Amino acid sequence: MKDKQTERWSTYEPFHIPLGDKKIVDIIITNHARSRWSDRVESMKTGYADIAQYLWECLKEGRIVSYYRHEQDVYTIDDDLIFVAEFAVSEKDVDLLGNPLHKMIVVTFLGRMSETMELRDLRTYYSWLRHSRRMTLIKNNRKRR
Fold it and tell me: Please, are residues 17 and 103 in contact by the beta-carbon 8 Å criterion?
């Protein structure tokens, strides 16, 4: 989803929005992210263009911030909606100085912190998930013997 409504005045640089140390020029939504969006975020506007437009507007308004300070894969919107994103260098877009611009690939939406309290501390939540899965496997293994 590129910005289709931006009017440019005689510049040759593609339109981009900074996010941390990256300059985002395009947003790509994966199939998994789209299905998680419809399950966990919103059930009305579930198209790829709707999600990408929402994320693009949030980027322009500066509402997307990194969830952790030093890690750049989990982001929040308005300190509520959590999503996971990866970045790829755009093959065709560079800024005026020749620096690479990036595509943001949205991998999944984890949900809203206001609805799921466990999302407030992701590291604890994921360690609990790993532990509970491991314990389930151990219990199932005991039953089979």
Answer: no
What does the alpha-carbon distance between residue 36 and residue 95 come to, in Å, rounded to a whole number?
33
Q: Which residues are paired to 112 by β-bridges?
A: 81
Q: What does residue 113 show for φ and ψ, rounded to 5 degrees?
A: -65, -30
Q: How many C-beta atoms lie closer than 10 Å to residue 26's C-beta?
A: 20
Q: Which amino acid is at 35?
A: S
**Least-confidence region, from 37-46, 71-80, 86-95, 132-141:** 132-141
The arithmetic mean of pLDDT across residues 125-135, rounded, is 70
Give the tokens for residue 142.
Answer: 């005991």
Residue 22 CB neighbours (<10 A): 18
Q: Do the beta carbons of residue 93 and residue 14 sit within 8 Å? A: yes
| Residue given tokens 């991998």 in the structure block | 107
